[in-house]
Amino acid sequence: MARAEDEQERSSTHVSTPDPVSQTIRELGHKAEPDIIELRRHFHRYPELSMEEFQTTEAIASALTDLGIPYTRPLKTGLVATLRGTAPDAYLPNGEPRRRILLRADIDALPVVERTGEPFASAYEGRMHACGHDCHIAMMLGCITILSQMTDALRGEVRIVFQPSEENGQGAQLMVDAGATDGVDGAFAMHIWSEVDAGTISCEAGPRMAHTDWFRIDIEGTSCHGAMPQRGADAVMAAASIVCALQTIVSRDLSPYDPAVVTVGEIAGGTARNVIAGSAHLSGTVRIYSDKTHDLMPGLIKRIAEHTAAALGAEAHLSDYTVANLKVENDPRASELCARAAAKIMGPAALAHYQGTMSGEDFSAFLAKVPGVLVFIGTRNPAIGATFAQHSCYYKIDESVLAPGAMLAAQYAIDFLASEK
């Protein structure tokens, strides 16, 4: 019995012993916190839209230069930085890194008119960082600040991708095509998230963000006098009916256990208030987790549109169906490594359960090349009004989560490079 108690005491002592690497990360992260917040506010005040992030790229480049971190610019906006480890086994005899981890931060903003009233609110009318990408930049620069002072703990190389045009779903693939994933063993990204409580993170394995598709349907009817509807085929009526009928895909064609969203966000038609419309169009988005349903969806939309229009004497054509992003699916090993890293930095209580979202993310383009993990950094805090959804003109975040996010990225990079393939 005494031996068992001694072993239990030793085990307890071992668990409570601070990890010197994690302790250093926390010390450096707390020291960098004011700068991280200041950077976030700067990027928030000067948002730039997809593929127009010129000032943003220059500001990131300036910060990297101050830290002595080399970088390249494979695209007209965004950049790729390299942080070389100095641990004894960081590089193989042939000069290749023992392992290489890719850290991604997206940098573009949205065409949203900001109404937060923040003193650092957008200086540009009609543009806003309403999805947290300003936070992603600041956290990643904070992570680099930490790691640049801990290169002796890096058993390999860190490649940091500051990626443009996530909101348009183009930037990640452009970076992949430019070679960003060449020679990479894994990928990591963070996303500030309004549905996860501040002070917690979610990095569960499996699907986390949905397949994202766009579609357009064109409707052709027969125009006539508005007082003589029997003489024509109303394209606007057909369009409205198609909008309603499309919802039966989710409610009747799919299993209740197969989550999907079909949203029509735009509808237009007609030429005058007293003319039965001869043409109309509608466009929308589809979000799905299931690969099988993803393959079926264009045919389901086409069937609904054509038959609904035909019942009203009109014709409908699915004129465009574009796969924008594939789903983001976290690798189990990467998720487990991330959970352990989060526990080291924030404590086990910081690990939250979040079911995932039907929103899309082009980080999937990186995950199509290498296994990895996308982490939701919780920022919901009703006490300060940080409750509005992503893309809201009132979107706010709890800035106290930024430094821990930077620390988590640093811990993950160190742990990943130290792990075996």
From TrEMBL:
Residues 214-302 form the Peptidase M20 dimerisation domain. Pfam families: M20_dimer (PF07687), Peptidase_M20 (PF01546). InterPro entries: Amidohydrolase (IPR017439), Bact_exopeptidase_dim_dom (IPR036264), Peptidase_M20 (IPR002933), Peptidase_M20_dimer (IPR011650). It comes from the Bacteria. Residues 1-24 are annotated as: Disordered. Residues 13-24 have a biased composition (Polar residues). This is Amidohydrolase. It comes from Collinsella ureilytica.
